[in-house]
Write a structure and sequence with these properties.
heterodimer, A: alpha+beta, 2 domains, two-stranded antiparallel sheet, 4 helices, about 45% helix, B: alpha/beta, Rossmann fold, 13 helices, globular, binds adenosine-5'-diphosphate, binds magnesium ion
Chain lengths: ~110, ~270
Amino acid sequence: MTLRDLINKLLGRETASANTARERLQLVLAHDRVDMSSLTTDLLDKMRKEILDVVAKYVEIDFEEVAVSLETEDRMTALVANLPIKRTISGEIKFKKTDKSDKTDKDIKK
Amino acid sequence: MAENTRTILICSGKGGVGKTTLTANLGIALANSGATTAVLDADFGLRNLDLLLGLENRIVYTAQDVLDKNCRLDQALVRHKKEPNLALLPAGDPRMLDWMKPEDMKKISEVLSEKFDFVLVDCPAGVEDGFKNALAACKEAIVVTNPELSAVRDADRVIGILNTSDIEPIQLVINRVRPNMMASQEMLSIEDVQGILSLPLLGIVLEDEQVIISTNRGEPLTLTDGRSPAKKCYLNVSQRLTGKDVPIIDPKNEGKSLKDKFMRLMQTKVF
Ligand SMILES: Nc1ncnc2c1ncn2[C@@H]1O[C@H](COP(=O)(O)OP(=O)(O)O)[C@@H](O)[C@H]1O
Ligand SMILES: [Mg+2]
């Protein structure tokens, strides 16, 4: 965080537009960079369902919090699945916290 | 074909980001450093390179006549009077777009390679046939962009295509940089743009009204005597292109007023 960001935050002002530009660009490029003819939203949906089916065989997933998306870094686009686990099928409680999305693979990845 | 001729595609995806201006200035700067240089206008639809170089009244033949064998190459080349190491091969008329094939462009660049150390190809905007034809004529590329969303996005598409060809190296020039806006974080930073596009940075060019003035006169800045922010940048890019180990111009050092200094202070990382 820069001095400017800090002052903006303290004054409750909007952050500088370069940040917004960077974030919007990263999002739009993530989609541009995958060949749209081969990976449409439909396909992404279908993939999400199938991934969920497989994972759900072994662990209980918090369906409300599931997110499957495309992310881009260094010209590499990755399919990132965020599947918060409630418990394993055997009944053993793993990450059962009331505030979920606490431990997700995305966090672990970082 | 001369093995060591460097044929360089100057492209961007988006129009109006500064390809033609860079081609003209870089062409003059390279020629001035002693390298024989040809600039090829591959923007057949909207040719402009002749205007920027002030050569529009001296065109007799074009690339089309060379391909049709209406004339020899040296008859079509327009040599610059003030910079004899530089020659322009003008674009033919827009109808060439209908029949031009990548092989035709390749042929042109091969004949140019026999005579010149550098061949700079001013590419049309877009990622369609005109761009693909120009690409076929080149061994390396310079992607020009501006620190703006749409320009960066289009540059990314072009880079995607270049990455699937055997063009190498592909280097980045960020044009129309405004140090003040970057300092106040109202413009994507050099690091942002370079990080997003992941290309080696050849250089930056500052926003400079002298660019417009020199265009009016048909004399690229690198041909003029005065000092100007953009001229300094074009010379820097030219030196780096020829392998000189000079640092990239850093916009952070370019603003000199008190306001600029204050803006820099505001950029200090606090945590
Ligand atoms: N560094 C700069 N500072 C100010 N104006 C610029 C700069 N670079 C380009 N321009 C202006 O931007 C416009 C588009 O430039 P041009 O080189 O024709 O772009 P392109 O060939 O990519 O379409 C021109 O009017 C030119 O004068
Ligand atoms: Mg142009």
